[in-house]
Predict the 3D structure of the following.
Amino acid sequence: MNRVVITGMGIYSVIGKNLEEVKDSLYHGKSGIILDPTRKKLGFRSALTGMVERPVLKGVLDRRMRVGLPVQGEYAYIATLEALKNAAIDEAFLEKNEIGILYGNDSSALSVVESVDILRQKKDSMMIGSGYIFQSMNSTVSMNLSVIFKLKGVNFTVSGACASGSHAIGIGYLLIQQGLQDVIICGGAQEINPESTASFDALNAFSVRESEPTKASRPFDRDRDGLVPSGGAATVILESYESAIKRGATIFGEVVGYGFSSNGEHISIPNVDGPVRAMQMSLKMAQMKSEMIDYINAHATSTQAGDSKEAIAIDRLFHRSRPFVSSTKSMTGHEMWMGGASEIVYSTLMMNHSFVAPNINFNNPDETTASLNIAHTTVEKEIGSFLSNSFGFGGTNSSLIIRKFNR
Amino acid sequence: MQDEVIKSRIDQLLIDEIELDKDQLHPEADLKKDLGIDSLDFVDLFVIVENNFGFKMKAEEMSEIRTLQDFYDYIIKRVNPS
């Protein structure tokens, strides 16, 4: 079976619009959370959100390419552009080879709302125009980027709720491992707008610490009161070891394990067993003992139930070695469909720059989170391998293990 | 509305909305071959025409519009029916 390596990364996030900015934010524990007054006016229970400005693509992409691209597709385009550059993959290489795309995305709500608003107002479907159909499908990101970058390999979207981006990388890993593709653009994208988060706000799942936006996302902390929605996009170029060596590519890490499972219980209430099985499967695939993991990038979103269950699950498997654990969602908020991919980018940056980013706002543990070795400040540390968890509605779980590349 | 005013308005809309270059806009230019207006762009022209000239284009009429001059003539005829 082929070894699978990471040869490029790109990021457009609420804590930075490129790898360099994001690395600095991670190191310094910078939050990207703000209070959005529009949401307050609309009647949101919580107006907290991660925020990043919309990329300006006029003059960069032609009109036809822009018309069908929703905002999360714009984020994904910028992230992918950076990742391809980072991987030293140019247009000629894309033209000559069967490069695939597997992107995580699970909504395009704003485009749906806007197009139906036009229909309701104008009473004529012809007034919707040509772009909204391509903007509003779940596969919008893979659909658009495959055309923009002229890709000829595997091309579909992975929708697995808040584990979408992680599953996309996992599936890409398996396809390359099996020798079915040499290079796949993997990633995750998440729209940022009230339209896509209103129904989530209705579940009382968001933090209401509106007086202190940057302190609202506090995974594992005793006083956490909910998640903060966020978004952006992250791209990871997965490549077979053979192809990477042939190109003389820089290798940022090796994907060695992908574990997945389903809780088989409640649609929104997490459990312990499902995440335990996903992590166990990833360790088994990687042929690694739990002691070999130096850092865990937790899914922990800052909800009472989710963080507790994950803490118990991690403790069950890692109580002997107690690796450093942090949730970068403390800084970024919950990037949902994007999170599983962005957290691979964040953790790989940490691995390549020898530090563990802090789980900011972690002041006091509770009885379940006290067992973890949580990095509450930045830790200078060599990371040989890390595990990244992503869980989602319906009880979907994904665990990825990335190892520092060693010939 | 005078014919020349309509023509210059169409040109400006093609520049602003379809992002064509001014120097591409010759009356004899073929909408598809020379200006690159494809079937999806025609869908957007429906919206542009209704929003700017206040009438609905009919899909079946579009098959007879080949050049920019055909498009000018079509719009002029609908705006100023003689």
The CA atoms of residues 279 and 399 of chain A lie 5 Å apart. Residues 71-86 of chain A form the longest helix (16 residues). The domain at 4-247 of chain A is CATH 3.40.47.10 (Peroxisomal Thiolase; Chain A, domain 1).
